[in-house]
Write a structure and sequence with these properties.
The chain contains three helices and five strands. The protein has 148 residues and is of the alpha+beta class. It has a five-stranded antiparallel sheet with strand order 1-2-3-5-4. The mean pLDDT is 96. Bound molecules: guanosine-5'-monophosphate (5GP). The site of guanosine-5'-monophosphate has 13 residues, from strand 2.
């Protein structure tokens, strides 16, 4: 396998297959959104395509468009659910670009005025906290889908 080939055993591929658990907040036939296990802000969500793509450099443009549309929708729900003042959106490509998990993902980070992002410390969040934030975000997204 070349250094830039898609690895079907990456962590997010395992989450997509149901081999690993995740606190899911949104799912379609094209994308899945779930809580980041080491959040840099409360309500930190990751949006991934279901298609096998390593990052921005190899994803099919149509799949990228689906990912962008879903990211916008989920971002609005995260902002509403977490009562955020704004959002930071991040997407990293290859190790030199800060990528750690090699299935393309969009970070959605709710932001509040005067509150800094936490360092990428590698500290796992409490599962109950992740479940609570996931439930709040799911409710907001369901309300938006219902036209609210
Ligand atoms: P990146 O590749 O964009 O640098 O970072 C990968 C992100 O995935 C990190 O924010 C990290 O906290 C998150 N992450 C790593 N392993 C898992 C996991 O097993 N489950 C979930 N939900 N998130 C993970």
């Amino acid at each position: 396998m070349s250094a830039t080939a898609y690895d079907p055993n990456n962590i997010f591929a395992k989450i997509l297959r149901g081999d690993l658990p995740a606190h899911k907040v949104y799912e379609t036939d094209k994308v899945l959104a779930f809580m980041d296990i080491m959040p840099r802000a409360d309500g930190h969500v990751l949006v991934i395509p279901k298609t096998a793509a390593r990052n921005l450099l190899d994803i099919n443009p149509d799949d990228l468009a689906d990912l962008a549309k879903a990211s916008q929708f989920v971002a609005k729900g995260v902002k509403r659910a977490m009562a955020a003042d704004g959002l930071t959106i991040q997407q990293f490509n290859e190790s030199a670009g800060g990528q750690v998990v090699f299935h393309i993902h969009v970070h959605i980070l709710p932001r509040w005025t005067g509150v800094a992002l936490r360092p990428h410390s590698g500290a796992m969040e409490n599962q109950d906290v992740l479940a609570k934030h996931a439930a709040t975000i799911r409710s907001a997204l369901e309300a938006m889908q219902a036209g609210g």
